[in-house]
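Board notes (copied after class):
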Amino acid sequence: MAKRTGIEVSIAIAEAARQANVDVVSAYPITPQTHIVEHLAQLVADGDLDAEYITVESEHTAMSACVGASAAGARVFTSTSSQGLALMNEIVYLASSLRTPVVMALANRSLSGPISIWNDHSDVMNERDTGWISIFANNGQEAYDLTLMAFRIGEDRRVMLPVMINFDGFILTHVIEPMYIFDDEEIADFIPPYEPVCVLDTDNPITMGPVGVPDVYTEAKKQQEIAIRESRPIIEEVFEEFAQRYGRRYEPVETYKADDAEIVLLAQGSVIEAAEVAVDLLREQGRKVGAVELRLWRPFPFDALREVLCGTSIKQVVVLDRCISFGGPIGPVLSEVRSALYLEKDRPMVVGVVAGLGGRDISLEEYVEMFDVGEECLRTGKDSGEETDLVRIVGLRE
């Protein structure tokens, strides 16, 4: 029976890895994810987790060890942030290409420069095309739940792909929240022992990751693309089983008061709960607004997003990015949403805003301003799709 307890989000994620009975943890400390791996190291040292904790000299080596351990048949967990993820980047591509189902807790943090230890989404957006399944949590309970589900998703023999769970640095990592933490027995039934498809074995040698000459490289990439697209129904299967077992339901795209909304704010991560407060405020004023949470980032949930946004009362979508696509269409989430809706005849207009870079607080008034941006574009018929020199950043100091 799950017990409600006050626990730091980072510790809860480490406990999820323990409950999944991981075989190998390889990580390097970096703010703000350090509490996760510190707790796991303590669990191993105290004998509360029967796993190998591999101490390394950098995040690049940490991911290298993770890929090697997973290829040898181990259940593997790691965690990182920002510059650490950027240093891992070379091997992050290998993890997905070799179909090693490593689970990573990514404490989202802004990338340099200037140096910032605070939260935005520039680190995960830098990894958009690495071939990992990528899911966003908006609070501590979700971060804990999704970490547990990540093992079931990635290790499914129909998937065999690495999974990253995104949760906002400091806003979540260092916060103590009331959460329902499962008994170990409940999770043991939900997460069965890992059964790898291919294993590096000195008694039965195989080759993994050989040179991809031009005659095979394209086909290898096509197989990888098929694999991540076909992971979508398995992700939803796991979401559904979790809901049936434990009563908490997750969807690739979720809405808040959007059934009759004309303007919605679409976002990812912890900002969505603050956006819902703004929705409540504006609803009291009689404005038909709502919020849309894009939980599943990869594989991108095209159909679910279209079902929510197209052919409904929604006339204007305001996409909140917490990352700038320099020289591009304001932000990467905006670009993806517009692309997803492009061929739909009954699509709403889409406008993008950027806020919360480098951990800057977003005030309630600024969330209201985002809805005002949507109303202005709806009134003028402009969706900011034209060439413009202006990147619309909410909260920018003059």
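Comment from the instructor: The domain at 253-380 is CATH 3.40.50.920 (Rossmann fold). The chain has a mean pLDDT of 95.
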